[in-house]
Design brief:
Two copies of one chain form a homodimer. The first copy, chain A, contains twelve helices and seven strands. In chain A, strands 3-4-2-5-1-6-7 form a seven-stranded mixed beta sheet, with helices on both faces. In chain A, a hairpin with a 2-residue loop joins strand 3 and strand 4. Chains A and B meet through helix 2, helix 4, helix 7 and helix 10 of A and helix 2, helix 4, helix 7 and helix 10 of B. The structure holds adenosine-5'-triphosphate (ATP) (2 copies) and magnesium ion (2 copies). One adenosine-5'-triphosphate sits at the interface of chains A and B.
């Protein structure tokens, strides 16, 4: 029975794709069977894994109600790719019945083939993100220690409450973690203290330091453990996976 | 007659809000009458200018067809605030007639009161961004010198072509500029060369360096020229405004 995880934050550029890719790949390197689902029209996760011009994407499943296309991208690691067409699907889905549960239905037949399923969500709290939250067990929230990112956390919690009330009462936050973090910066310390007060034990101890290898790896379609195993990025994501596994 | 500028990029965290706020404030400091329009449900521009819990926002105008609420936020500087409710308006607008031109109609009665009008767009290429592009004269594209950001530029150009074809034949790109830039990084140099090849003369010479003052200023509701006039951020945005004014 898979554990389904949504990686969400409507604030842009907080490390959702980088985290989904590297947490997923890290779990796969540990022998877990992992499925990554790119539900962002930008399709960064799809490109970051080196997948180009794939014929079938999640757009086809949502618009034509055909099974989710699954592509192997590594040992124990598979991907449901995305495409820009997905921008249109939010508009197409909106007038359909039970538009919030499309992805849940598409996921049901394949869910038990995996140990972990991770959704990489777009920078918004619209219908695509809700479709990922409805079938999810837990949520991970990557957060930059920045003012705008901090101001937005009320809204994330608000949407989670809504989904819990209407569709998924068991949905819980597995953890909030700081990304692109420069621990010496005063602004970072201030924001970290405020986030700790807001989320309490949900704020994970592990944070991800700024590390250029993390920005370079997607250009060659690799995860951080394959691209730069001795980098701060690989160390930090390794520790983060350890901590997440204690919470799920 | 106002020059209407849209600041767009569907990639998250590339500096759209930071640029809209500081280019707008910089123009106002030079005596131009400026209106900033926050059309992002995250409402970061609204918060970055220190505006909290405003009764009327752009959501009210779009959902109830009432005039745009305009708030003075500084000398020569006004704001149309946003709110999270805007997330819902994309779904509400979609089934209405000429849903792409709602904002254009709301802007028409007040357009001539300003020299410059700037839209801060959300990290998406959906209906809200299109509503900003339809009444715009020019586009500014802040771009991080990162792999995912670079991969996304085809799509931005695609959407601009669509809007030009159906609604706004005069729409043009005033400039693409690099933000959060660390000129020594190899990845940055590589991406900068690729962007130069792609955009040619549209890539502005001025780039915005990484500068913590830019991240601190919104926490106190100030633009960079008021918060840290001698910082790299103020210098870079000052030079950027000079260069933009030669292009418009
Ligand atoms: N710890 C880090 N150190 C350095 N660069 C990073 C780090 N994490 C992410 N990045 C880079 O920062 C940028 C933003 O990260 P990413 O694209 O993963 O965020 P996102 O939340 O998925 O963005 P979006 O909101 O557009 O989906 C990317 O170019 C990525 O390579
Ligand atoms: N040149 C810079 N130096 C340092 N920090 C910066 C710089 N420009 C922007 N930032 C910070 O980076 C983060 C992202 O910038 P910003 O919010 O302006 O991007 P955005 O494109 O508007 O994001 P979104 O896609 O969520 O709307 C913010 O926390 C901001 O304070
Ligand atoms: Mg992403
Ligand atoms: Mg913004």
């Amino acid at each position: 029975m898979a554990t389904v995880i949504s990686v969400i934050n409507h604030k842009g550029g907080t490390g959702k794709t980088t985290s989904t890719l590297n947490i997923g790949a890290g779990l796969a390197h540990r022998g877990k069977k992992v499925l990554l689902i790119d539900i962002d029209p930008q399709a960064n996760l799809t490109e970051g894994l080196g997948v180009r011009d794939n014929p079938d994407t999640i757009y086809d499943s949502l618009s034509k109600n055909i099974p989710l296309p699954v592509i192997p991208v590594g040992e124990n690691l598979s991907l449901v790719p995305s495409s820009l067409d997905l921008v249109g699907v939010e508009l197409e889905l909106v007038s359909k019945m039970s538009r919030e549960t499309f992805v849940k239905k598409l996921l049901a037949p394949i869910k038990d083939d995996y140990d972990f399923i991770l959704f990489d969500c777009p920078p918004s709290l619209g219908l695509l993100t809700i479709n990922a939250l409805v079938p999810s067990d837990v949520i991970l929230i990557p957060l930059e220690a920045e003012y705008y990112a901090y101001r937005g956390i009320d809204r994330i919690v608000g949407i989670i409450k809504n989904v819990r009330e209407h569709f998924n009462p068991e949905l819980k936050i597995a953890g909030v973690f700081l990304t692109k973090c420069n621990p010496q910066r005063i602004l970072t310390k201030d924001i970290r203290d405020s986030v700790k007060q807001y989320f309490g034990a949900n704020l994970l101890d592990t944070y991800i330091r700024v590390n250029v290898s993390l920005a370079e790896a997607p250009a060659v379609g690799k995860d951080i453990f394959s691209y730069a195993p001795d980098s701060n990025g690989a160390t930090d994501y390794g520790k983060l996976i350890d901590e997440i596994l204690t919470k799920i």
